[in-house]
Amino acid sequence: MLEVVDLWKSCEGQPLLNGVSFAAAAGETVCLLGASGSGKSTLLRLIAGLETPERGSVRWDGQDLAGVPVHRRGFGLVFQDYALFPHLDVAANVAFGLKVQGQAQTVVRERVAEVLAQVNLGDFGSRRVTELSGGEQQRVALARALAPRPRLLMFDEPLGALDRSLREQLIGELRQVLRLSRVPAVYVTHDQEEAFALADRVLLLHDGRILRSGSPRQVWQEPGSDWAARFLGAGNVVAGARRPDGRVETPAGVFADPCGGTHVTGEPACLLLRPGGAVRRPAGTPGCVTGRVADVVFRREDYRVTLDNGLYFFLTEAPRLGEELALELPPGAVQCLS
Fold first, then answer.
1. H or E element that contains 313
2. Rounded (10°) CA dihedral 166, 172, 176, 182
3. H or E, element range at 114
4. pLDDT digits (tens, 9 = 90+) for 251-283
5. Other Cβ atoms closer than 10 A to 34
6. CB 278 within 8 A of CB 329
7. Tens of pLDDT along 297-315?
């Protein structure tokens, strides 16, 4: 099992990682999800041994890997730019790690054929990698990482250079490969759709810290902070203040306080208003979010309706631009962020 324990790293006096800790169990895919500059790739490089932490440790089955070089860690890496050898054909690229291990030629041939079949490139062994599409090259990179039977796979934005339709196709194939291989994986991405589709567990990184950890469903349903809610696009984040009657007054309206506990009157509160399931009500209906329609965008199954106060909701019928709306939010649509 991989253990990352209290890792710290800075560059030119600027903190990159601030005490990051997590573990990846056998067969588990952990996705490090965050914006550019959040520390994701730095963390991956520390795990790989490409950089050294200032504090903390990377461990495998309890053994500290400090001082263990990259090629002896038994970890496979897949990068966004593929990092293939252009002068070698597909089979030779995939065989590279096996030859470094000193495997017999017959073993190398059998293993190369096995992993190429696994990534749906069984007939591509003699092709030059420069003749392949981006998606095919990424499959070769995955096969090369799998061939030496790594004890951990690491992915650094591997699908970032591909178009949307191809990326969606490869996400499905990659998910299948990871499940069949049972190799634990650490997957770095800024794309939440990738993370939610692939991960058993998502770690949200921000400013070098893990702000939220959980299954994709848990992270989406309970972001836990205003930054996480905004980054995930979970809904409308509104600030307000607590009233003596136990409710929260915000520019969007007055809501029952979903946070629970004992709070002081006037204490600041931050709420998440989920955009789905809102129902139109007559003007003046108590407890509704109100505003004038500023924009309407068709989303295949519904409409994203933005009000003049900046709030947006998903409605099944398109209102008119400039129309005054009163929207009743469904139970559970108002959530606590602080």
1. strand 312-315
2. 90
3. helix 105-118
4. 888 888 888 777 788 889 999 999 999 999 998
5. 27
6. yes
7. 999 899 999 999 999 999 9
Which pair of structure tokens corresponds to residue 323? 């129309």
Torsion of CA 8, 10, 16, 21, to 10 degrees: -10
User: For residue 114, what are its two tokens?
Assistant: 């096995």
Q: Give CA–CA dist 2/63, Å, rounded.
A: 10
Token look-up 């470094």 returns 100
Amino acid at position 222, single letter: E
Supply the pLDDT for residue 329.
94
Residue 221 pLDDT > 90, yes or no?
A: yes
The beta-carbon contacts of 300-309 under 8 Å, at least 24 apart in sequence, are: 304/275, 309/251, 309/252
Spell out the domain ranges in the chain: 2-223, 235-278+289-336
The DSSP output letter for 322 is: T
Q: Are 147 and 139 in contact (CB under 8 A)?
A: no
What the block records as the tokens of 263 is 């709070």
CA 76: distance to chain centroid?
A: 20
User: How many CA atoms lie within 13 Å of 183's alpha carbon, on the beta-carbon side?
Assistant: 25
Fold of 2-223: Rossmann fold (3.40.50)
| 307 CA to centre of own chain | 29
* Spatial CB neighbours of 176, under 8 Å, sequence gap ≥ 6: none
User: Interior CA angle at 102 toward 114 and 108, to 5°?
Assistant: 20
Distance CA 86, CA 71 (A): 21
Determine the distance from the C-alpha atom of residue 330 to the mean position of all C-alpha atoms in its chain, rounded to a whole number.
Answer: 28
CA dihedral 230, 233, 238, 242 (to 10 degrees): -80
Amino acid identity of 328?
Answer: E
